[in-house]
Amino acid sequence: KTPAGTRTVVKTAKTKVTSHSVIGAIHSSVVHHVSLKKPSPKPETNNIAKKKRKGDDTSAVDVKLVPKGTTTVHSTKFVNEFFDIMNEDEYLKDSYLVMDNASIHKSKPIIRKIKVKGYRIMYLSPLLA
Predict the structure, then answer these.
(1) Among residues 84, 88, 124, which one has the least CA distance to residue 106?
(2) Would you give the distance in Å from CA 123 to the centre of its chain?
(3) How many CA atoms lie within 13 A of 62 on its CB side?
(4) Region (Disordered): which ranges (predicted)?
(5) Range from 31-45, 54-68, 83-97 carrying the lowest mean pLDDT
């Protein structure tokens, strides 16, 4: 117990967990397509990149960070693979694709791809997503 008037300091163990993104497409009767996006391997860092620059010192190297998470490129790839499967089934032609309101689902490349293939988009209400 902490004495009155002082802040409580709680120490917790920090664990680094690798995250995976799963993108799925389901129908009322079947799972159509599932894609797993594994994180890219961590780039090796060297000690030079960690140095702070002093004035005109150009010996330090700038390191570009690799973007994390699911990007529009991942979603577009998934949609392309999904349409290859959808186009094989005549029953699914002119169907609605129901998606949540994630910004990645509203990106212009995704919307364009869906409309060009002849499907329609319906977004879930924010209360349901």
Answers:
(1) 124
(2) 18
(3) 2
(4) 33-60
(5) 54-68
